Amino acid sequence: MQRVDLFPTHEYKGLKLRTGRPYPFGATVMGNAVNFSVYSRYATACTLVLFHNHEPEPFVEIPFQKEFKMGNVFSMMVFDLDFENIEYGYRMDGPWNPKEGHRFDKTKILMDPYAKLIAGRDAWGVQPDWDNVYQYRARVVCDDFDWEDDLPLETPVNELVIYEMHVRNFTCGANANVKHPGTFAGIAEKIPYLKELGVNCVELMPIHEFDEFENSKPSPVDGRMLYNVWGYSNVGFFAPKAAYASTGRFGMQVDELKNLIKQLHANGIEVILDVVFNHTAEGNEKGPYISYRGIDNKTYYMLTPDGYYFNFSGCGNTLNCNNPNVRDMIVESLRYWVTDYHVDGFRFDLAAILGRDQNGCPMPNPPLLESLAHDPILGKTKLIAEAWDAGGLYQVGAFPSWGRWAEWNGKYRDSIRRFLKGDEHVLGDVKERIAGSADLYASQNRGIKASVNFITAHDGFTLMDLVSYNGKHNEANGEDNRDGEDNNNSWNCGWEGECEDAGINYLRHKQIKNAISLLMVSQGIPMILSGDEMGNTQYGNNNAYCQDNEIGWLDWTNLQKNEDIYNYFRKIIRFRQAHKALRFEYHFGHCDYRNLGYPDFSWHGVKAWRPDTGYNNLTAAFMLNGRYAETDGVPDDFIYVAMNMHWDMHGFELPQLPEELAWHVFANTEMAAPDDICEPGEECLLDNQHEILVGPRSIMILVGKRPK
Fold first, then answer.
1. Which residues contact 379 (CB under 8 A, 6 or more apart)?
2. Distance of alpha carbon 397 from alpha carbon 443, whole angstroms
3. What pLDDT score does 143 carry?
4. Catalytic residue (choose from 255, 282, 344, 349)
5. What ranges in 202-310 are assigned the alpha helix state H?
6. What is the pLDDT of residue 2?
7. pLDDT tens digit sequence for 549-561
8. Is the peptide bond before 400 cis (omega within 30 degrees of 0)?
9. CB–CB of 408/414 below 8 Å?
10. Active-site residue 386, yes or no?
11. In angstroms, rounded to a whole number, what is the distance separating the alpha carbons of residues 620 and 510?
12. Which is the catalytic residue, given 386, 407, 532, 636?
């Protein structure tokens, strides 16, 4: 017996209709009908516009009748549609009064904010028809993917090693040797590589649908086309980018992304999405009508008293995140990615914006952030904030968290970079960062796991460029080198850019190994920039957002060219995973509070138990007592790390171990490969158990364990 509410009651131009269900928003298949539902507080009328796939003109436009509106929601069921072969949009009528925030224009066809599939940019770099009346076309999703037994992995956050990557740049280069370069399928082909490297989490730069042609233009420097490569300019929050799928031209991007996530999970690798809820691709008042502006401008955007757009994002507009309806959209988007795509977590771009009210003022208890922290569906999902925005709000260490939010620790990046290049008066801060940034997170009882530690990320120099350039070289971006960060805390080791000098190149490789050593022995969640493990360069460009070429693409030949760097990365990642003492959840007591013979964590200098102090000091050491880090009743080893960022060699007196243990050398960045690092568990017994000599600008890592 069929349900009465799935029978049509109306007809329009041969199509059978009935009053729809206001919730859920978007287009939902219900039996032999599609339910279309869209919210607008201020619209006076709405029309559903239906196209056959890729057709320039609609085949029908159906006005929502009066009885098809409940509250501020227009909803309608349309029966017997071939929903896999239609595209849909809306026309909204309402007041045109920009000063009051209203910009309704019924001549515009608008994309559904809840569209789960978006066409119009189906293959990367294919010039669209700019005369098309409907550029970004919402489609109906056929949800028939077989996940089998896959679910989000729920890896403990303190066990993560995050690998930040760009879907296209990762495999787009000709030497990537994949069948489907620059796509989700291309990443799937590289899963064995990711597994061998040892990372257990990939953080994908924005994969929500965006337009690579936004602000595209030929470079005035070399004539090559500059695109919106990074994608920090969303068209829709529910749909994966079609051009990131090898099957995008067939509308199969949903299945291709789900298949990638399923394969990553099968190999123990989590997936975090970099999400951009701070603004949209519609820009300021001169920008295009895509969706939100024409559907309900006053609801979706932060507006000045004169109706202009607040611009805390630096991209023309700011999403009104703490409006209850916008907040609900964001929550629904995240729930959708977790439930339908099995995503494990999210990194929120310019997340400080998410804590501003509709007038742009920071809120002490932002409703959106609180909702996400306590949402039942997101209860075990990683939430990571980029705790600043383009409006100057910097909240590292102070981001509203409710015990749930972690942060990109920008202070870790800055301090470690300065220490690596030998800056004075930074060691005190470096000690805080290495020990888990208790000065930032302990008072809030957020624990070490609140700190996502990184030295490089997509925004800025690669690790190779950090040790090869004193200044940025963004000329190819066509902005006269004005774009990108000026304060990089970088050092070129004596020569600007690539060079043939063996001594300089040896020092650069050593500095890279120093950097990854510090990252992997620091308490917190380490994040690596894709390509750093093979010495990838962007030729000094620290803002390669528009470079769809060898500047932005990974050069996989670097795996052979810089084999020593890759091997060092691989082994030290495994070292971190082998030692629970490097993955504490809560901050140290810096004392022996369990009466185990040694403090849980202790600082040392060139003399054991006597930390070095002083403005100019560039030497320090620390020791972790593995007895405070048991696994199934088995204590971990002692770990000792000596850091010498001075340009001269220094001797370090070693702390005496318990009688049955001895110091073994795991890594020494002063040594040439392959003697610079051991396989974890195969460390070499140290001849002199009382002192080590640490070379200039070098790090040594020792393990205290029973001799074989």
1. none
2. 10
3. 85
4. 349
5. 253-266, 292-300
6. 57
7. 999 999 999 999 9
8. no
9. no
10. yes
11. 18
12. 386
